[in-house]
Task: inverse folding
């Protein structure tokens, strides 16, 4: 794919069209630690968007930036939110479809054995005619 990788696709960063509109009508307001770039419209500051670095997955947007994108806070996260507390954990992206996804014991892709039924379950059997 090379140079044309983002020509028409939206799932791996911005397409050329999104990049052009962002540069022409948007104002870059910040970047997060993952490299995502956040914009607001020059004429209508309530219109906000993000251009992801890499795969377009909204679970990769940190909570503060998510609040800003949705209009929950007006200020940028560094200004509108209190400092991070020592007990807060780093946010994690959605791991579904990756090797790190949760797989319960006994599932097809997990290990272990499924716990036995507790006796309150009776398998359905069709009536024999």
Result:
């Amino acid at each position: 794919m090379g140079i044309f990788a983002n020509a028409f696709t939206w799932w791996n960063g911005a397409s050329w069209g999104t990049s052009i509109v962002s540069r022409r009508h948007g104002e870059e307001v910040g970047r997060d630690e993952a490299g995502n770039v956040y914009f607001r419209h020059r004429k209508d500051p309530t219109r906000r968007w993000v251009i992801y670095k890499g795969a377009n997955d909204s679970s990769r947007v940190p909570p503060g930036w998510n609040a800003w994108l949705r209009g929950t806070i007006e200020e940028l996260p560094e200004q509108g939110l209190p400092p991070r507390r020592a007990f807060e954990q780093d946010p994690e992206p959605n791991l579904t479809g990756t090797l790190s996804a949760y797989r319960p014991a006994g599932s097809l892709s997990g290990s272990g054995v499924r716990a036995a039924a507790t006796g309150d379950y009776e398998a359905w059997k069709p009536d024999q005619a």
